[in-house]
Design brief:
Strand order of the largest sheet of chain A: 1-2
Order of helices and strands of chain A: HEEHHHHHHHHHHHHHHHH
Order of helices and strands of chain B: HHHHEEEHHHHEHHH
Number of domains of chain B: 1
Shape of chain A: globular
Helix content of chain A: 55-70%
Largest sheet of chain A: 2 strands, antiparallel
Distance between the termini of chain A: 52 Å
Structural class of chain B: mainly alpha
Shape of chain B: globular
Radius of gyration of chain B: 19 Å
Oligomer: heterodimer
């Protein structure tokens, strides 16, 4: 049989399967009518259109790649070449970009782009919060290899403890920030205890259950947490006792700047950037300490690790404590920045996003975490904006509706396309004998 | 006494549904060692398919007999949901076979997010409420009081028991079951001995989706409300049930499901309904501390 006939057959199957998938769930929509009874709306056109699109797409794909869309080679082997000289300066260029970002945003917005507040807040601060969370989980999952599906619990503990301490006792944000981290680390130790005896996916389900317990307590313990209403009017951080708003008495007011919310936003941006850089630096330092080496050794092989006399109990506990500490910091920052928290912000989806960021970043690579956070969070935020799609699909088309669906699809496709993450997996920081093919000595962290 | 028996009936009903979903988790885990995180959302999708098919039969096609309608929904729903199960495995998991351990899990989480948002998109975000069906009750005297057993509760327990019987027969006495057990023990060796591993895994996903489809139909009949976000919590509880019973073990999944259903029901009946999920999850943590491989699971032997 010729290639086009083969492709046609394949495409027909794909089209029919799509039609089968779309048959009840797309073709018939349920809606409640005025007397609250469910009635069906028929949308056969939509179902057939979807099947038609799938048919055409599969036909074209099969023509281009006649073997079908199965992967014939199971992933290529990583060939290591000495890094390009440009790559050596890349971290500094990246750092300079991050430091200059609010000013760049100012430049873009005065040149007629989207508002500077949105650029700094959504694309700057929000992404950096996820970078911080990702760096925290990176210690647990990336370095120690413990699959924690409930990282959001530490985020929640940090956010709620800082919010409660500042609103109830009037403590300053600067005192509460380390306290939130320490409290989260304490919970990290607590959760690591039942996990000690478990392996692999059992850890995943216990941590997931733990995060759900934390969330349910936040929802149900109304006198303290406010239930679904959450905690609002959390005080904003100050700089040496000066407020950064625009009211009389604040720092920008005294310096004679025109009133604008940008000062506080820029301050918060630099604060979360400092936290993320601190987390990055601390992780680099920890990795070369005995405890960090023990984490990586445990990720590579727990049995070998134990037989070499490494105490896996303390290794696991410290990994959870250190990771949870950064989760707590992120939570404290989150509550202070938005001034409002509720259990809605600490659902499983957040944990899933953080795990996705760490895995797509390449398990252990911190630059990878930053890039993956930018791609995943920035990408889904960008989807809210696209006016272009509106022009294609008509004015009723609301891209925000498709945001999470496409996020899920992107997770699947990125995994199928790059199972090892966007950046290659990190090698252990310390090796007995560096492999001959590597250009740089392996004992020096590559990032 | 009658209150206790009443709660026992309610708990067993709920537990049967959890057990049916849990089998899907445990079978997939047993055969490829992967947590199929999207299974809860397949269950939710199945409940929607059942709801739509039921409405289609009763409203558009005018099928008068309730029994006939439910039977058609059952068979057609199983077929359509297993198609979804097959496609999900084919697109999201098969390309990742032989990849590192976390890759299929991430893909499954992505699939779960995709499915719930897809259903929200095509069916709307509101709860779908169906007027109650099969709500006649049998009153059974117990001691000095009486308990009620609704027709639908009876239906749920009977259907679950019948399906478990069929499943037990399939796994124990058919060539498919033999192939499944072989793949579970050693996939490479099974392939060398002529077992079509890919086909066996596909069929495992299909069986899991079929059971989820039945669970979805039963859930729809029992509660009469479905929402796009209904996949997560029952999914996590069913997974908890599978782990509690010992992941990879079929009787364990059913036992775990019944236990989770009973714990949840009794906790809400005697203590507070707010913390029923906390109770279920806490018991999971406690059981795993003392029995790290679940109630009926085989202890893992680590070979170096």
């Amino acid at each position: 049989m010729g290639a086009p006939a083969d492709a046609l057959k394949r495409a027909l199957i794909v089209g029919l399967v799509t039609l089968g998938l779309a048959f009840p769930i797309v073709a018939l929509r349920t809606d409640a009518n005025f007397s609250n009874q469910l009635v069906l709306t028929q949308r056969w056109g939509l179902a057939f259109t979807l099947a038609g699109i799938a048919f055409v797409a599969a036909f074209l794909l099969a023509l281009v790649r006649p073997v079908g869309f199965e992967r014939t080679t199971p992933g290529k082997t990583v060939t290591s070449t000495p890094p390009h000289p440009f790559l050596r300066y890349l971290p500094y260029i990246g750092l300079a970009f991050l430091l200059a970002y609010p000013f760049i945003a100012l430049g873009i917005s005065s040149a007629g782009g989207t508002g500077v507040l949105k650029l700094v807040d959504t694309y700057g601060i929000q992404i950096l919060i996820y970078v911080l969370l990702g760096l925290g989980l990176n210690i647990i999952l990336g370095l120690a290899g413990l699959l924690d599906l409930g990282f959001v619990a530490f985020y929640a503990v940090g956010a709620y403890s800082s919010a409660l301490l500042t609103t109830t006792f009037g403590l300053s944000f600067w005192l509460v920030l380390p306290l939130a981290g320490i409290l989260a680390a304490f919970w990290g130790v607590m959760i690591s205890l039942p996990v000690l005896r478990l392996k692999g996916d059992y850890i995943a389900i216990v941590t997931l259950a733990f995060a759900e317990i934390v969330r349910l307590v936040l929802v149900n313990w109304v006198p303290v947490t406010g239930g679904y209403a959450g905690i609002s009017s959390i005080p904003k951080p100050t700089l040496f006792g000066f407020s950064l708003g625009s009211e009389p008495g604040s720092l920008p007011y005294m310096l004679g700047f025109p009133p604008s919310p940008i000062y506080r936003l820029a301050f918060m941006y630099y604060l979360v950037l400092a936290l993320a850089l601190a987390a990055y630096w601390v992780t680099i330092r920890l990795r070369t300490l005995p405890v960090g080496r023990a984490w990586e050794a445990m990720r590579e092989d727990e049995i070998a690790c134990r037989s070499l006399g490494i105490n896996t109990v303390t290794t696991k506990v410290t990994a959870f404590a250190a990771g949870a500490f950064f989760g707590g910091l992120a939570g404290a920052f989150f509550s202070a920045h938005y001034g409002f928290i509720s259990p809605k912000s600490f659902e499983f989806l957040e944990s899933a996003m953080i795990v996705a960021i760490v895995v797509l970043g390449g398990l252990g690579s911190m630059v990878g975490v930053a890039i993956a956070a930018t791609v995943m969070i920035g990408g889904t935020e960008l989807l809210r904006e696209l006016g272009l799609l509106k022009a294609v699909f008509g004015p009723d088309f609301d891209p925000a509706q498709y945001r999470m669906m496409l996020f899920g699809l992107a997770m699947v496709m990125l995994m199928v396309w790059r199972p090892k993450g966007l950046i290659a997996t990190r090698e252990p920081t310390v090796r007995l004998k560096p492999p001959a093919t590597r250009g740089a000595p392996a004992a020096v962290p590559a990032e | 006494m009658d209150y206790f028996v009443q709660q026992l009936i309610n708990g067993l009903t709920l537990g049967s549904i959890y057990g049916l979903i849990a089998i899907g988790y445990t079978m997939v885990y047993g055969i490829i060692g992967m947590v199929n995180f999207a299974h809860g959302d397949v269950f939710m999708l199945a409940a929607f398919i059942a709801l739509i098919l039921f409405l289609m039969l009763t409203q558009l096609l005018g099928v008068g007999s309730l029994g006939l309608a439910l039977l058609v929904v059952l068979v057609l729903g199983m077929a359509l949901t297993s198609l979804w199960g097959w496609v999900i495995e084919r697109l999201a998991y098969r390309p990742l076979r032989g990849s590192f351990r976390l890759a299929p899990l991430i893909s499954a989480i992505g699939m779960s997010i995709f499915l719930s948002n897809f259903v929200q998109l095509v069916q709307g975000p509101r709860n779908k409420t169906l007027e109650p069906i099969l709500s006649n009750v049998l009153v059974i005297p117990v001691g000095d009081g009486s308990v009620t057993l609704a027709e639908k509760q009876l239906l749920i327990m009977v259907v679950t028991a019948a399906l478990l019987g069929v499943l037990w027969y399939v796994v124990r006495h058919t060539s498919l079951g033999r192939a499944q057990r072989a793949c579970e023990q050693d996939r490479k060796m099974a392939a060398l001995l002529g077992v079509d591993v890919d086909r066996t895994i596909s069929l495992t996903f299909i069986i899991g989706a079929m059971l989820a489809s039945v669970a979805g139909l039963l859930w729809m009949t029992y509660y009469g409300v479905v929402s796009f976000s209904d996949g997560f919590v029952p999914g996590v509880k069913a997974f908890t049930a599978a782990v509690l019973g010992g992941i990879g073990s079929l009787p364990g999944a059913v036992l775990g499901g019944l236990l989770i259903g009973l714990i949840e029901t009794f906790w809400s009946a005697y203590f507070t309904i707010d913390y029923k999920d906390v109770a279920a999850f806490s018991i999971l943590a406690i059981v795993l501390i003392f029995l790290p491989s679940g109630l009926l699971g085989r202890p893992d032997v680590e070979k170096v």
